[in-house]
Amino acid sequence: MTRGSRLSGIHAAATLTDLGFASIAAGVLARRRPVVRLLERMQADERAVKRMQWLRQNFGSGPVELVMPGRRMVVILDPDDVATVLDGAPTPFHPANKEKRKALQWFQPHGVLVSEGPVRDRRRDFNESVLQADTPVHHLAPKFNRIITEEAGVFVKDAIKRRQFDSGQFMTTWWRLVRRVVLGDQARDDGAVTDDLWRLRSAGNWSFLSLPHYRMRNRFIERLYRYAENADPDSLLGLVANTPANGDVDPIGQVPQWLFAFDAAGMATIRALAVLSTHPENLARALTEATDAGAVALRPYLRSCILESVRLWPTTPTILRDTTADTEWKDGHTFTIGAGAGLMIVVPAFHRDPDLLPFAHQFTPDIWLDGRAEQYPQLVPFSAGPAICPGRNVVLLVTSTLLANLLGMCDFSLTSTPRPSPESPLPMTFNQLTLEFAVEPKHSVVDA
Fold it and tell me: DSSP secondary-structure letter at 212?
């Protein structure tokens, strides 16, 4: 049995820095505004792509093991191995990675992402049941659509009055509709609950270095329980309250992850809007799905625009796993990596490498419609395999419906820089926190 490629000491540290620098500096769980602005100027995600290319050139396509004091991290290099790892959850590639558990414990200590053993299966089943993971259009879609239409109308009215809006104003609206979708209408203006979640996520950014935040976590969870006591039946929390579950599932304890995931969905939505506003041909196709925006519809092209936004700028830059058993790999020969290692899939380095993808730096929503994306196992905007995001269809429903409403009411022009262009490679790092748009109402809105 042959040993695979390994790096240790300064070489391992340098590799880990290049692969993880941008996502760790930006804030894995809660983005740091000044840092993200600097990373955009540096186009920092290019470092991960270049380092992965260097690793393949020097070590082949098999995984490389980084050996550091107290920890081994396995870096996946081959697209086919991405599929192998994600298909192998939870054994031998477990999603409850050591670093992930420490980071997420501050706001979802019983979440499915950090659960192990039989309770993980029960929590996973509960998540899939409430979120209707395999259903493209959730049965609460009519209520969700009403919420989105109402909040989009308020947002657009204010934006038209000012003739502009920015990322901060968009995210204020986004969180209002998310709180209504997840917690119910009564939570619309309860910014404190999502502010507490933000603070807990910020603490999670520091993982093992974070100070205890028990009081804040208890306050946050208590708020969720108060909403559950009189749950809005047409919200996700209302389904939580009415879905049978064993006590160890901790149904309320699953809700923080949904709120957290919707933050990433907001990032994807405003980036998609920015690209559509600068890509006339794509915008024209998107507008065909923006008619009758208040109706429940699948909107496949707008969904593909969201998927493409996440492919270009992954909201989860690194997928982490821990190996629960010895694993065998091939790269001209077969070798074994011992159990107990961490494992990392550096998503931008797979999604934006022109050596692997002919459309790496272009906005190409059609790949999600014509079957091309399925030919590339490394394209994982919502992860993949048994641990694929159970909320993916709810997210795609909400985001595509919001885009349909906004595009149907206004013409948007991106005024901030960098300005994506269909004639140039799209930026590797694109700061969603500082986008600015000029707004012009469509004639139908003015007439109304």
Answer: P
Is there a contact between 395 and 298 (Cβ–Cβ < 8 Å)?
no
The two tokens of residue 343 are 């494992």
CA within 13 Å, CB half, 154 = 12
Could you read off the pLDDT of 308-334 as tens digits, one per residue? 999 999 999 999 999 999 999 988 789
Structure-token pair, residue 422: 């269909």
Q: What are phi and psi of 347, to 5 degrees?
A: -60, -50
pLDDT of residue 106: 86
Tokens of 10: 């300064």
pLDDT digits (tens, 9 = 90+) for 176-208: 999 999 999 999 999 999 999 999 999 888 776
Please calculate the CA angle 74-26-398 and round it to the nearest 5 degrees.
95
Residue whose tokens read 């960098």: 418
Which candidate, 15, 124, 200, 26, places its Cα nearest to that of 385? Answer: 124
Q: Is the dihedral of CA 316, 318, 323, 327 positive or negative?
A: positive
Supply φ then ψ for residue 434, to 5 degrees: -125, 25
Residue of 377, 358, 353, 320 lying closest to 47 (CA atoms):
353
The torsion region of residue 113 among left (phi > 0), alpha (psi -120 to 50) and beta comes to alpha
pLDDT for the residue numbered 444: 55
Distance from C-alpha of 217 to C-alpha of 105, rounded to nearest angstrom: 9
Burial of 129 (0-12, 13-18, 19+ CB in 10 A): middle
Residue whose token pair is 């603070």: 199
Closest CA to 309 of 379, 386, 408, 370: 379
CA distances from residue 29 to 103, 113, 174 in whole angstroms, order as listed: 8, 14, 18
Token digits of residue 398: 């909400």
Give the list of residues 6+ apart from residue 338 with CB closer than 8 angstroms, or none: 72, 323, 326
